[in-house]
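Justification of resources, computational component.

The compute hours requested in this renewal are based largely on the per-chain cost of generating structure records like the one below. Each record pairs the submitted sequence with a full structure-token output. That output is archived, and it is also reused by downstream analysis tasks.
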Amino acid sequence: MLAFACRITDAITEKIILFNPTKKTIIMSGFYGAISKEECINEVFYGTDYHSHLGTKRAGMVFWNKENGFQRSIHSLESEYFRSKFEGDLKDFSGKLGMGVISDTDPQPIILNSHLGKFAIVTVSRIVNIVELEKEFLDKKKHFTQNFHDNVNPTELIANLICEKNSFVEGIKNVHDKIKGSCSLLILTPDKIIAARDKLGRTPIVIGKKDGAFAVASETSAFPNTGYDIEHYIGPGEVVEITADAYKTVKPANEKMQVCSFLWVYYGYPTSFYEGINTEECRYRCGAAIAKKDDVEADFVCGVPDSGVGHAYGYSNEKGVPYKRAYSKYTPTWPRSFMPQNQNVRELVAKMKLIPNNAIIKDSKAVFLDDSIVRGTQLKDNTVDLRKAGIKEVHMRIACPPLTYPCNFLNFSQSRSTTELATRKAIIKIEGEEKNFEKYADSSTPEYKKMVELIAEDLGIDSLIYQDLNDLVEAIGLPKEKLCTHCWDGSSYF
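The structure output for this chain reads:
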């Protein structure tokens, strides 16, 4: 949906499958771009593919060359992997600069023509005030040319905000000034890539370098196998122009930062670095921090696949308790628990792909590490299976504090009704209504202790310990004021 000031360019070759969004999952989005002195089709293809853990609904790629202009492809990912969906398109692409996106929100990239010239854009964003901004454009007699399930396509609205100004830098400042939520983006023009990180740096962007080329990505895990070394962590609000020869900052970074802490806890890939801090090493520290405060005796430690594994290794190494795989994850035919549109089917798939190993479980006392508890439904089902397998004791250790507040800044928890959260259900049981959240978010209070006891009772486990917020901050290694910890303590801001 583009406002009248920006029209879709006809200098494109496109194969597009557009579709309606379903209920959002606890997943974000991610992008990858490359600009080279040689063809970069494969680099963008594989670089984008390395962001597949960040989205399950749709993806797109766009390239530019002098002969064909912009070439674009967008596909659904709800039934197949990125690689199998896009592999057949590669023969139709040609170019020395391009970008791709894995999205759980809107169909992108968007390609348009404007007074700023022809460009393509991809975003990782959440716009809380999107309805107000849509009305603002309509009141100006602008119109939207592409429906997105009867809603405004967020990336196209962001393109509109950029096109209100006389330069890309001014337009990006306009985006940062007007939206509530977050927005990181890449812009592809015929001669460069423009990368702009969210004004508070909630989502990361990192530049990679190799001879004759630069890449830019949400996840540094996309760099090693595409031949790039980490060159520059783009700062909050920073805008960078990138060519095949060099990159330059055209708007400096802001001082304030609120980077999402959940990058390290959950949705970041283990080999990725954010702000120079490796995800897996942080998870080791998280697990070790819990182990130092835990006096339970157990026969083994197990991480709930996948994101609980790093935390469990940290716990195991610190505690000196052996790590064992009580669960194996079966992925050949069950690649994604969140792929089906129906929630009941998603929960069934989540159960089907985790196979318990009864030989390890039977007659054992075990500590299980997981990244977080949202509703607790799957964990409750897993506990039933463990009891059936003959486990003696189940002790859950959660790598982050209790999730108490909804995320207002990323698509990470946009879909969750707060009343479905395990913490809120416990609070309602205690208070009769949702209130006194501050007391329940403070691990030193009797209210917090009672809430945790009720959650453990509901899950059917023998004990439950959540990570202390101060320990999590220390494990990440950034000052508290530079981290967004809103879902745990309600402290963050726009």
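Confidence is low (pLDDT under 50) at residues 1-26. The CA atoms of residues 334 and 353 lie 6 Å apart.
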